[in-house]
Amino acid sequence: MSEIVENPAHPEEKEYTTLNLGPTHPATHGIFQNVLKMDGEKIVDAESTIGYIHRAFEKISERKPYYMLTTLTDRMNYCSSPINNMGWHMTVEKLIGVKLPKRVEYMRVVIMELSRIADHIICNSVIGVDTGAMTGFLYIFQWREFIYEIFENICGARLTTNIGRVGGFERNWSPEVWTKIDNFMRDFPEALKEFENLLVRNRIFMDRTIGAGPIKGDRALEYGFTGPNLRAAGVDYDVRVMNPYSSYEDFDFVIPVGQNGDTYDRFMVREQEMWESLSIIKQALAKIDRNDPTYHAEVPEFYLPPKEDVYNKMEALIYHFKIVMGEDNIPVGEVYHSVEGGNGELGFYLISDGGRCPYRLHFRRPCFIYYQAYPEMIKGGMLSDAILTMSSMNVIAGELDA
Amino acid sequence: MAVATAENIKTLHDTVLAKLKEKFADDVISSEIDYDFPVFVVKRENIQNILKFLKEDPELNFHFLTTLCGLHYPDNKGKEFGVMYQLHNMPKNFRIRLKAFIPGNDLEISSVTSLWATANWMERQEYDFFGIIFKGHPNLKRILNMDDITFFPMRKEFPLEDPTRDDKDDTMFGR
């Protein structure tokens, strides 16, 4: 009996507990399994198991025409699916060489920045919930709702939006959309300010988050971090600035960076990014002529014609048939396009052999790449910090497992 | 930070090609510019050294592995499989793509986990889907699929739909 209680040969050898955090755990906001080796409440070692909601998107995309793949991208980072949709549209546009009118590009910028705000609202308010502050979460979620109403008005869907098409938008924005965006722009800054008042200089929040789950800049680069998590570690890499797409070069904004790469810095970088997004939207709205009827590029071979033209015009009927049947002339080639998604560089590597479906489509999913640093980041910390670290990394199960 | 214009990409292509030719003359098979990326096809035997050189060269300094993915071309005899690496030098905004092809009967290539920690899961993913063995990987096991499946689903011969069904005919509108 005494051997079990105490190992006399190795008195220094500690007894560790193995703890299964997940696969489904209410605090991890998704299906993540981590097997933790614990010394009391301290994490000694961790191992992540992923793939619980793997849906073989890369394989499915080898059997679906280009326009059908937009719905798959929705289901990756579903907190900001419009960014994924537009990233995919831009990849195809790059392959076929379509140049969009400026107005459409600015409209895309508005949508992408709105969804970035929605994404950061979820992430930041959930960090608050994990530290025990429910109020901010319940309060600011209303604004995410308003953003979803804008999406609903444009494309008919809220979460998995399937917004836009290759070549532009499916229809021009209605007057209600503009009103809703204006209302949002008018009222959101005040709400965000109040949300920040609840958390930013909150003693309890700061004590819980400063120093929790830190990562150094060079280590983050080795681990392939991108997006807010990398910027929180002090590296000012942003795809929107480095390789501008959709006319981001026309806008004036700041890339916020952190210093320590801990939970608090990640929170603050996201907060600051929301302010920058608001400024970008404001600039874009000033550039868009609301009465201009342009909402797509003139590429009849790739952009579906209006339905009444399909019934009444020969050419439109031919184009409609060719697009739906996947008989349009997709060039042979390889293209990589990346956008600054809600949580990092979302890349699409597309190989086309001229067929109706991609020959190979590889998604560079930021979550998948940086989540492998998670065990290293939580080692030596407390279990409660591990929960915070995960929510502040903004790991989205759909994107992780694709 | 340089904007990736056509001339910049051409210059980058020429610089990298010259450096690779000087150091690894026998290993560079071909190079081209595909859209906005210089692409280099190299032999798989020396891939780790080539990537190490590109990472550590003071002028090029490709310190960031953006992504890595497997390729399968069943009709290219002798080089059925491949691995694509995409590297990035953030301060100078240099991006290049490297490809190494592997014969289907000897699916081995050196792992680059010693150069970039991020290659760990990326390589596991490509092992999981294509069965490419990354030599020197610390923990090469399946990542997204179940541990006990016996096939590699991203290979072209693996059917997406149940092959026993005969009510679906794709001869007209297949890929």
Provide an overview of this structure.
The complex is a heterodimer of chains A (402) and B (175). Chain A has helices at residues 2-5, 57-60, 70-74, 81-96, 102-130, 134-155, 175-199, 203-209, 217-222, 227-232, 239-242, 263-287, 307-312, 314-324, 366-370, 374-378, 383-393, 397-401; strands at 17-21, 33-39, 42-49, 332-341, 344-353, 360-364. By secondary structure, chain A is mainly α. Chain B has three helices and seven strands. Chain A binds chain B through residues 50-51, 54, 56, 58-60, 62-63, 94-95, 219, 221-224, 235, 237, 242-243, 325-326, 333-336, 338, 345, 347, 349, 351, 355-357, 360, 362, 364, 368-369, 371-373, 401-402, and chain B through 1, 4, 34-35, 37, 39, 63-67, 69, 71-72, 84, 86, 90, 93, 95, 97, 116-118, 120-122, 125, 129, 143-145, 153-154, 158, 160-161, 173, 175.
Radius of gyration of chain A: 23 Å
Which strand order spans the largest sheet of chain B, edge to edge or round the barrel?
A: 1-2-5-4-3
Helix and strand element order of chain B: HEEHEEEEHE
Distance between the termini of chain A: 50 Å
Structural class of chain B: alpha/beta
| Strand line-up across the major sheet of chain A | 1-2-3
Identify the overall geometry of chain B.
globular
Low-confidence stretches of chain A: none
The main β sheet of chain B shows up as: 5 strands, mixed
Q: Name the beta content range of chain B.
A: 25-35%
Major β-sheet annotation of chain A: 3 strands, antiparallel
Distance between the termini of chain B: 41 Å
Helix content of chain B: 10-25%
Give the uncertain stretches of chain B in residue-range form.
none
Q: Number of helix segments of chain A?
A: 18
Q: What are the salient characteristics of this protein?
A:
heterodimer, A: 402 residues, mainly alpha, globular, B: 175 residues, alpha/beta, five-stranded mixed beta sheet
